Hints:
It is a single chain. The protein is an all-beta fold. The protein has strands at residues 2-6, 9-13, 25-30, 33-34, 41-47, 55-59, 66-69, 73-77, 84-88, 92-94, 104-110, 114-116. The chain starts with a strand and ends with a strand.
Amino acid sequence: KVKLVVDKEEIIAxxxxxxxxxxxxxxxxxxxxxxxxxxxxxxxxxxxxxxxxVAKIDVDMDNTDVVASSVxxxxxxxxxxxxxxxxxTPEIQLKAATDVATPIPVVLKLDExxxxxxxx
Length: 120
């Protein structure tokens, strides 16, 4: 039997298969910046990355030069063992057109509620 309790709600099920997967651990991200045009391939290394349901990459909106970014880039697993994934950075709108070559720090959004930033 499997018993699951979430917020005072209890579910008990018979004959159910499940697999425990440890939390993901990010060990390295390269590169940690994008450019205004986006499309930069960012590789994320770690363990158990396949435990992440939804991974997206965006730019650090706290950066004073950024006005807006397009839809965050999606990340895909590179290997089935969960050791790395690849993300493409979104296009960024900057305050000044002359800043298009300025590196903009990226952030990872994991499972819609975890934000990984300050990656340098």
